[in-house]
């Protein structure tokens, strides 16, 4: 196939390229005609888009594929045109067609690009003009675009935020899930109300609708998020909610909300089998203040009372103002029903100080009625009604002083009253020599000698005679009086030990019992000071603690115990087996002795479980190299069993009840030996 190859043909090719590149319309046609004439050395002819002249000697169509671009035609050469000339004109036409086609393609692409750019610009303008903030992010949450609305809403310029992760804007980064992992989103879109953080740090409510962003094959490549600030709407909603459920004067829940909250708590109380109580509080003689000093003063007084009540209560307690001078409290974490009486007492104490309002010093009391769940009622309406009735009963007896409380149930009233008597009596007893210590000997199982004595507190009550600790220690523990009581016991026991030491008696351990409330970081210091004050050696003293104290927080407990052990004072674990000691912890505590609880000794030798437990505790103590003592030994069978199991010390009525100090001293002076010999008729191995 002939092509354009002579040097003049190259010239013509270059000219052709330049013409197609730089010319359009008539000028291009002229140029193409001139090139054709020059190539074929023809005086006439040219490029024709329409009909050809009749005189044409040689013509060639210019087309590429289905595109037709016109024709070349030449004429007038002396000697005419041969086959080679036809081939050359055909080659020129092909080349021209290709170039024209390429130019048309390029023009189309350029037009399309221009159009796309224009459209993009338009879209960006639209995005920037709309008020909502629109952002896009990739599948891993990194922000890829950020419109003007987003800049305005969040305060970040696009340049600051593009490339950062969306999590950066969350109020609470831990709480929210990664939107890209959201299954709803993957399926389509999703709308939600969220809280987001602005550049200023301000948190606001936004409605967020998310939809997925896909490429032209339909594959998800990211997310589009539309944010709208809905803070105002939310605030309005909250305001409406507040108006419907809260008391405008004090900000406390109102009756409607209170009943709802109580009903909710009752559902969980009935599920957990826990106790609850409602306290109906009515201020005493509020009306005269309101009438004489005016509503302004009355309102301020109510506000201050509300604050004091709130401060006195726990966060979980529910409190509301029912109206005028009536308040109500719901308690649902009560261990015992009568604890509601302590809370009522606390509220009355909280009211005691005078209120200073507009120059007036006002005193206020209250009457509190208490109903208990599930004893008195099981629904909020009944409980509130009965608490109201109880409140009137309280009002009758306490209108003259700072206030009083009464339970709806008479039986609870009696119990509360007697507890109150014990508490006030004990407060007095600690300071006025009504307490005393009894001592119960601890005996070596091998030779029957006294190795120690447990100091047990007694209350010599002026009217009731000797009162046992089971009656007053729990009340002391609840009212924190136990710390003062404990200080008294430590002091009295050390004083006694010092007297015995001075009397030349052989050293033995005087053990005192501690309550959980006494087991604090100040304990080692107090023990050391008491030892010094009385000049006794540390091996005269032992502290009996219970498993519950080990649960406070392991590291603190170990530190306190180590400090005590460092003084040379021994620690024994009382009532062992009744708590939940983890055996691995037990190894870490500097405990000297495990004291098997009396409840396991009681069933020996008949109860197989008790025998197994007591035997196992002795085994554990030996493994951990602790000493082991059994308390509550009441008969020879128990003694035999314990001896056979390898128990080292014993304590119980079988040998001696707790006795007054003089009696104890007598036993020590006599170097009393208790009978620990094997019973002649006992079976050797009771296990
Ligand atoms: P505990 O520390 O387990 O004391 C043993 C209790 O069992 C004593 O009762 C004791 O009299 C009694 N007991 C001893 N041997 C026998 C026996 O063979 N049979 C029977 N049935 N009982 C026996 P007590 O003196 O009434 O003390 C009761 C609890 O009160 C003590 O239990 C202890 O937890 C607490 N307690 C006593 N004194 C104090 C104290 O000064 N401070 C503190 N925080 N608690 C104390
Ligand atoms: Mg004890
Ligand atoms: Mg005990």
What is this structure's SSE topology?
Layout: H1 7-22, H2 25-39, E1 44-48, E2 58-64, E3 67-75, H3 83-129, E4 133-138, E5 143-146, H4 148-154, H5 158-161, H6 183-187, E6 189-197, E7 203-214, E8 220-229, H7 231-245, H8 255-272, E9 275-284, H9 286-293, H10 295-312, E10 318-323, E11 326-334, H11 339-352, E12 355-357, E13 360-362, E14 365-373, H12 380-398, E15 403-407, H13 410-431, E16 435-444, E17 450-461, E18 465-467, H14 469-479, H15 481-502, E19 509-513, H16 523-534, E20 541-546, H17 547-550, H18 554-567, E21 570-576, H19 583-588, E22 593-596, H20 598-602, H21 608-623, E23 627-630, H22 636-645, E24 649-650, E25 659-660, H23 661-669
Helix pairs in contact: 1-2, 1-3, 9-10, 10-11, 13-14, 13-15, 14-15, 15-16, 16-18
The structure holds ligand C2E and magnesium ion (2 copies).
What does this structure look like?
- It is built from 23 helices and 25 strands.
- By secondary structure, the protein is of the alpha/beta class.
- The chain folds into four domains: 102 residues, no CATH class; 104 residues, PAS domain (Beta-Lactamase); 163 residues, Alpha-Beta Plaits (2-Layer Sandwich); 241 residues, EAL domain (TIM Barrel, Alpha-Beta Barrel), CATH 3.20.20.
- It is elongated, with a radius of gyration of 49 Å.
- The C terminus is likely disordered.
- The site of one magnesium ion (MG) has 4 residues, from loops.
Give a nutshell description of this structure:
It is built from 23 helices and 25 strands.
């Amino acid at each position: 196939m002939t092509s354009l190859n002579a040097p003049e043909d190259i010239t013509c090719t270059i000219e052709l390229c330049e013409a197609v590149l730089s010319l359009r319309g008539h000028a291009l046609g002229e140029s193409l005609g001139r090139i054709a004439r020059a190539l074929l050395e023809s005086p006439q002819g040219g490029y024709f888009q329409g009909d050809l002249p009749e005189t044409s000697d040689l013509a060639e169509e210019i087309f590429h594929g289905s595109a037709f671009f016109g024709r070349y035609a030449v004429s007038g050469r002396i000697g005419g045109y041969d086959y080679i000339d036809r081939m050359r004109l055909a080659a020129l036409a092909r080349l021209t067609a290709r170039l024209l086609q390429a130019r048309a393609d390029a023009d189309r692409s350029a037009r399309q690009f221009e159009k796309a750019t224009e459209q993009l610009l338009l879209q960006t303008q639209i995005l920037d003009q709309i008020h909502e903030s629109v952002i896009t992010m990739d599948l891993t949450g990194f922000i890829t675009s950020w419109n003007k609305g987003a800049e305005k809403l969040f305060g970040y310029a696009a340049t600051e935020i593009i490339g950062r992760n969306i999590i950066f804007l969350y109020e609470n980064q831990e709480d929210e899930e990664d939107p890209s992992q959201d299954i709803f989103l993957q399926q389509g879109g999703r709308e939600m109300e969220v809280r987001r953080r602005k550049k200023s740090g301000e948190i606001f409510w936004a409605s967020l609708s998310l939809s997925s962003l896909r490429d032209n094959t339909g594959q998800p490549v990211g997310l589009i998020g539309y944010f709208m600030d809905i803070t105002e709407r939310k605030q309005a909603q909250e305001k409406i909610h507040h108006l419907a459920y809260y008391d405008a004067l004090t900000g406390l829940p109102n009756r409607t909300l209170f009943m709802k909250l109580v009903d909710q708590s009752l559902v969980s109380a009935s599920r957990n089998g826990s106790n609850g109580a409602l306290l109906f509080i009515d201020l005493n003689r509020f009306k005269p203040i309101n009438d004489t000093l005016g509503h302004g003063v009355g309102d301020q007084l109510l506000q201050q009372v509300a604050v004091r009540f709130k401060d006195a209560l726990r966060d979980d307690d529910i409190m509301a103002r029912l109206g005028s001078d009536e308040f109500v409290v719901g308690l649902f974490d009560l261990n015992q029903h009568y604890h509601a009486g302590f809370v009522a007492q606390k509220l009355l104490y909280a009211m005691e100080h005078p209120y200073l309002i507009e120059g007036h010093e006002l005193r206020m009391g209250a009457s509190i009625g208490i109903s208990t769940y599930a004893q008195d009622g099981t629904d909020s309406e009944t409980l509130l009604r009965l608490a109201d009735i109880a409140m009137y009963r309280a009002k009758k007896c306490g209108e003259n002083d700072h206030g009083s409380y009464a339970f709806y149930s008479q039986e609870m009233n009696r119990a509360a009253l007697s507890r109150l008597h014990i508490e006030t009596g004990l407060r007095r007893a600690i300071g006025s020599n009504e307490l005393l210590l009894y001592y119960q000997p601890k005996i070596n199982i091998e030779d029957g000698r006294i190795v120690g004595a447990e100091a047990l507190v007694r209350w010599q009550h002026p009217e009731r005679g000797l009162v046992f600790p089971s009656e007053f220690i729990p009340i002391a523990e609840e009212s924190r009086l136990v710390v003062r009581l404990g200080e008294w016991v430590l002091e009295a026991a050390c004083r006694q030990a010092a007297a015995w030491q001075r009397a030349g008696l052989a050293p033995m351990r005087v053990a005192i019992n501690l309550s959980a409330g006494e087991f604090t970081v100040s304990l080692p210091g107090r023990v050391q000071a008491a030892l010094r004050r009385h000049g006794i050696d540390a091996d005269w003293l032992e502290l009996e603690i219970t498993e519950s104290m080990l649960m406070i927080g392991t590291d603190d407990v170990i530190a306190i115990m180590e400090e005590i052990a460092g003084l040379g004072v021994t620690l024994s674990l009382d009532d062992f087996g009744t708590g939940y000691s983890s055996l691995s912890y037990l190894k870490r505590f500097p405990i000297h002795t495990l004291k098997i609880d009396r409840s396991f000794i009681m069933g020996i030798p008949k109860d197989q479980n008790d025998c197994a437990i007591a035997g196992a505790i002795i085994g554990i103590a030996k493994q951990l190299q602790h000493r082991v003592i059994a308390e509550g030994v009441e008969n020879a069978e128990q003694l035999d069993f314990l001896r056979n199991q390898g128990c080292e010390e014993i304590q119980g009525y079988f040998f001696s009840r707790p006795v007054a100090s003089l009696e104890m001293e007598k036993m020590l002076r006599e170097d009393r030996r208790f009978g620990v010999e094997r019973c002649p008729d006992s079976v050797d191995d009771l296990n």
